[in-house]
Amino acid sequence: MRANGGRARPWRAVLALVLAGGLAACSNTPPPPVVSSSSQAPPPTETASQIVATVDDIVGGYNPHALADASTVTTALSQLLLPSVFRPDAEGEPVLDDSLMTSAEVTSEEPFTVEYRIRPEASWSDGAPIAVEDFLYLAEAMTSQPGVANSAGYELIESIEPGEGGKLVRVTFSDPYPGWKTLFANLLPAHVLKDAPGGWQQVLSESFPAYGGPFAIKKIDTARGEIVIERNERYWEKPAAVDRIVLQRSDGPGMVSALRSGSAQFALGGVNGDTRALLADLGDHVSLHSVAQPYVVDVVLRPVGPALADEKVREAVSALLDRNALIDEGTQGGDSASLRASAQVLPPSSPDYKHTIPGAGPPLKRDTKRAHKLLAEAGYERKAGSWVDEDGRTLSLVVASPGQKQPYQRITQALTEQLIAHGIEVTPVHPPAKELFGSALAAPVDLDGGPAGEPVPTNGQVGIDIAVIPRALSADPATTAASWFGCGTESEEDEDTENTENTENTENTENTENTEEGSAGNGNATSTAASTTTPKDTTDGSEETSTTDAADAESESEPVVPANPAGFCDPDLQPALDAALTGETPLKQSLAKVEPTVWDASVSVPLFQRADTLAVGSGVSGVTPGPELVGPFSTAVNWTRAPR
Fold first, then answer.
1. CB 553 within 8 A of CB 547
2. Relative to the CA of 101, which of 184, 254, 263, 474 has its CA 20 to 30 Å away?
3. pLDDT tens sequence across 425-461
4. What is the pTM of this model?
5. 198 in the Ramachandran plot: left (φ > 0), alpha (ψ -120 to 50) or beta?
């Protein structure tokens, strides 16, 4: 089983003692940062060592581990500014980043243990060493904070022990983890972030306080849509070949104009089909590429939403969706249009991808007749154009997207119109992305606390029935599956205790179960509701209530905390997810159970994998599409200007 990510762990106590003493050398007040002479210079002008790239948006929020901050620019900045233990090579295989590490290797299979050795000279731009506390900070955040991307691997960590003055990091896991090389990418500077105002939810919300890569931020001007990045003068490894990289916000026609005039050397963004055609018309001086992003646009129908606890209602709503129209609205003929996502786990860019979507009927094709039949079976009747239950309550859904971020807002609007046209009342909401992921989708839920026994949030949040959101993709597909569809963490000790209690009470409950067979009431809500033992910190600083599992929580009328943004949990599916995550069974074998189970539950309707168009002009050398799910900025240290 996956380790309990939220429970107080012994490794935190061990590190507290060591960090107070043995790591003093690593935590001394750092020297003042180096101020480059360029900081006193006038605004940058066109030079041979400056590369300008146009991007489709610069909106703020740059935490690569937060779903709320998912964007092309966030991915780019993390490649330029943050250190990672492993980085993918051109074929997408993880390779040790020897600019940061001297080694990272499995030293024990039982218990599964990995030792990381950090280069002695590796340090943040303010002089503080990159050390064990940065590993600890990231691991703790990934197992305690809502709205993080791909946390399942971190939840297997049982202890983190320091050594060699903080440059040795010994990580022990509760179970084997074949995907361990995906951990500790994009490390964050713990010494300046752990006590920063606003906590995790405000990490990197406006800028970066320190850098551990070959580049540094000179200026971020969100209002003007410009980010100026310069060579990091404190970087201990190979210096960047170019002095400065400038990111400038631009719409599609602006990108075309900038490349034509030479004022920009390349463009990167989710442009529509018309803009891509204009870029192609620039001729041989511009090369075009498709760059798949590490996100799939997903429509999640949440079992913990007030109106969708009943699986028949979720299936009916799914049957009313015109998935093709939603994909068209989201992609607008751009590169994402060729990456239609018709599987729950593997993305279309994966060489192992294949369709798993049911071959007939919803959600592949809209089926209004089936939808109406399912709603009738769920107790609804069409009256005066609306669907009303036997108590006179109208079927009404709340549909959310992360702020006005595109393409999520456009898809939400199109989805709203589709459902309204078929008699379902819809209220679209667009809370800021950090609020949506950090609070609304992570709100504790009383599974039968509503006036009609429906699930309701307990923290005053509006219950979200449907969300159009990004699903983060890990280089390890088993991690993606366990993070997005898993039931939450539970320690082996808790499981053993529960099994013992269940064994002792079998005789007492057997007769009761037999007499109640067939009268489980709202059984669908129980079997697919979220569960977790991990208390998550919400954006208002309060701690959410923790529980054991959905069934126990429902019977005790205690709230449950959604284990994932979809609010989905199937206890029968969890063993397959765990087996894939720990390597007990091959991924293909686990997916044979995961894929049909998730499709049948009607909780996720994936639309497409996001993709950017990369247009590279003749005035730059070294800019390539980059490895899968990473993009072009991974090789920026080698970029140079070239004569046009």
1. yes
2. 474
3. 999 999 999 999 999 999 999 888 887 778 888 877 7
4. 0.85
5. left
